[in-house]
# Entry
Amino acid sequence: MTWKYKIYVAFTALTVLTTYANAAAPLGFDLHASNPVTLHTKSFMLAANESDTVLANTSIQVAKPTEAFEPPLFSNRKIHQYFGISTIALAGLTALTAPEDCDEGNCPPRNVNGVHATFAKATIAMAAATIATGLYTHWDDFHFDDGWADPDNLHVLLGVSGAALMAYAVNKSASSSVPVSHAAVAEAGAVLMVVAIKLTW
# Structure
């Protein structure tokens, strides 16, 4: 082996070792350690330290169980519902306080301000409030293009028709100087409102 070749081999080996040292130094390898097990152990320790650092800097958030949604006690929708139920309750009280039927000629004087009449007027006022709050709250919920079979449209149709029938019955009785038959019409209106409430409740 000539001296030129020896110099070339030595220079090449020195270049490789220098390059390897520069690449391995940031990783924490000890180039002076001749035992490969030592190099492997130090590599493992470095990986473990990095894992501990990542875990320490990572905030683990535990998901809380989702609570069941409870609608508020008072909202526009709830107030509309309460008004509708109150209308039916007042209609029931109106029917319970109706005077007994009398034979012609034996009827007591009509009392347009008695308990029955007062409950009847309160029923109509509550029905009007129910319709008003329903239109205000659910104006965007019903569309005539969907047809009357749509539950929202049917709710409106039955509710308004029921209120109109009850108002007609009350007005018919209040406008007459003698007792007139109006209970059946009022009860039919109340039934329609019950069905309307049931459709969407």
